[in-house]
Amino acid sequence: MAMPILEARSLRKSFGSGSTQVKVLCGASLSVAPGEFVVIMGASGSGKSTMLHLLGALDTPDSGSVSYRGESVFDGSRSKQGAYRNREVGFVFQFYHLLPELNVLENVMLPALVSNSFWAWRKTRVSARQNALEMLDRVGLIDRVKHRPNELSGGEQQRVAISRALVHKPALLLADEPTGNLDATTGSGILNLLAEFSEAGQTMILVTHDASVASRADRTLTLVEGVIREAGAPTAVEHKSEPQKPEVVL
Amino acid sequence: MYKWFLAWRYLRTKMIAFFGIASVMLCVAMVLVVMSVMGGFLDTVRDRSRGLHSEIIIDNRSMQGFPYYEEFSRFIENRLPEVIRLTTPSIWTYGLFRIPATNFTVSARVQGIHLDDYVQLNDFKRGLHYERYFPGTTTFKPQGMPVVGIGENGVMTLPPDLAAANALWRSNETDAAAIEAFDRLPFERALLPRVRPFVPAERVFAVDVGEAGYRGSKRPGIIVGCDLLNIRRSDGNFDRVYARGTDVALTLIPLSPAGNPNRQPAARLALRYVDDSRSGIYEIDSMSVYVDADMLQRELAMDAQPLAGGGFTKPRVNQLLVGLHEGVDMNEAKALIADAWREFYLSLGPGLTMDDERALAMMEVSTWEDLQRPFIQAVEKEKVLVTILFSLISMVAIVLVGCIFYMIVEKKTRDIGILKAIGASGRGVAVLFVSYAGAVGVLGSILGIALGSFFVWNINDIQDFLASLDPQLRVWSPDIYSFDRIPEVVKRADAIWIGLIAVFASMVGSLIPAFVAARVWPVQALRYE
Ligand SMILES: Nc1ncnc2c1ncn2[C@@H]1O[C@H](COP(=O)(O)OP(=O)(O)O)[C@@H](O)[C@H]1O
Ligand SMILES: [Mg+2]
Fold this sequence. Notes:
The complex is a heterodimer. Chain A is an alpha/beta fold. Chain A has a domain at about 35-60 and about 85-220: Rossmann fold, CATH 3.40.50. Chain A has 7 helices and 10 strands. Chain A has helices at about 50-55, 80-90, 105-115, 120-140, 155-165, 185-200, 210-215, and strands at about 5-15, 20-30, 35-40, 65-70, 70, 90, 170-175, 205-210, 220-225, 225-230. In chain A, strands 6-7-8-3-9-10 form a 6-stranded mixed beta sheet. In chain A, helix 3 (about 105-115) crosses helix 4, helix 3 runs parallel beside helix 5 and helix 4 packs across helix 5 (about 155-165). The longest helix of chain A has 21 residues, at about 120-140. Mean pLDDT of chain A is about 85; it is low at about 235-250. Chain B contains 20 helices and 16 strands. Chain B is of the alpha+beta class. The two termini of chain B are about 30 Å apart. In chain B, helix 13 runs parallel beside helix 18 (about 490-510) and helix 15 (about 425-455) packs antiparallel against helix 18. The interface of A and B includes residues 56 and 91 of A.
């Protein structure tokens, strides 16, 4: 295998403390090659979102590491993590998470707005706008650019969110149940769109509890009892220690 | 860039921002109104106080006055010709002011002045009413009552000298509106002399059939404080109820050099009301009358009086007023004159009478500021106090802005999470909220300055309007605040300072919520759903 673009080692994460502590991840590891389309499956509440947040540096692990192109993400400064989130990663959420005050175009331009200073923006504005329009054209929303998110359907909002995640051409797309909130037809439309990007070479990690999604992936992993297993190889466990469901430790 | 972009967008789309803007606006307006009115009040106090006095006042603060004022006048005029422009004596006492044709009787502070000199020392002349429209006709010299004549054709004419004086004013007056106002009501009539008058108006003359001219015996003039005799209208001008030239009786109690009432009976003076004086300070205008200093000195027995053992007493006055040349520093002049006084006093030698010795030992040289200081300082302190109080109240605005931003941060937690997921830094998000608050502050300040200025510029109209609803609502009453108009000037520096402080305060108010927003981890924010 080529050098992995993203590698997670023994991630541990628990929430709460004392009697209500919930251990969600208990040494989850993962390695993704460039261009790969990886699906992580798991039951609801198994820790898939938590895992993805750690991969995208939206949260910190209790222990373990995430390295991007060989460089540890959590060892860097906060601003380095910010740059990682801004440039290297695109995030798609189950609930779209668009800014309601901004219209479609402005939402898609947001990554560019965030990465440019007031002065730099004057120079980059035109190209940022152009990129956003191209992206929206690709997802088929070019005639909705002036609409507010609440004027769009769920599927359309998710397309906007995908545009926002990919407008910067990030190396990595992280999608957390992108179809979880959509009906089957709309959902498969979104999956087709993601598959298109994947075929164009986009590396992506998609999290879902929907088995039908898995068929599109290059590789399917499952998150069970806080660790990641190759699908169909339930014994290939890296850490045999304390395999357990996330539970309330009394 | 997103900080400014979103700050602006939130400002335009979030209703709640308007509460922030409104509270900043009201506080800015409130503080600006208070500072402008109090500042204007203070400036007016200073200005009017200056206009009341001469630069330097020499006196011993007693009613029986002091002697040797003429000698000392000449002494300092010779000694300090570069400093001293003019000296003039002044006498003051208290008396009973009466209009014999009516039962109008009040007590009055009587000031004796040399009118021609006195008007060169201060703003007295500016406050004279008839002197303005009939320049040169206000005098203390014995005079009759001017009477307007009604010709056979019914046309009313002024006595020739008054008509000429009025024509002179007309040709020199630069304010066309004033001439127009005058022509609308050239004079109002008091129908017959000695008959109880009539239509209250700005200028009142007695009217009689026949030729215009002067009637009645010649009597010395008296200038009367405008609030003493006239009726103040709500627009700040006066209705004059008594015709020019009306008989006035003034009763005085002469004092001996030792300060005891003289044995001779009280002096009764028959005078003519020739003009009224407006200094703008109610306490003065409602109390004071002005007569000729020499006459007053005689009537009060302060002139040279025969002594039992032969010889005469020295004439006395209560004050020696000194006007300085242009550009002379008042306090330096005061020091020079005080030195001169000591030298003069020592040169008088041991031959002084006991009373004179006692009077001269207490002499003081003061500037007009010294005399007014207690009053000016009281107003200064009041201004500071009121400004502090209202600034404290304005803290409410800061807290309110803080609350509003806290609410916005709570409501926008998800947005903050999204921004951070996209790579925004904690500092960036904090800057977003602080600049949002800054924008609220700027808008609130601009609106507040506009509102406050509008209020101050129209404050007298607003008060008149309120008073027309209920007289109780007239808060600025001249007998309480000395001045008839509420100050209505906004100083640009005040407005700018208040605005800047308000913007700063709004940003301070947003600091805690901004700090909270900065510390939010993306997931914490995104879990909300
Ligand atoms: N901030 C949190 N505080 C407490 N518990 C949490 C928090 N985030 C996640 N959890 C718990 O961790 C477990 C895994 O959550 P999540 O990663 O969202 O699962 P999934 O995405 O697989 O449904 C759940 O039991 C959830 O309740
Ligand atoms: Mg989830």
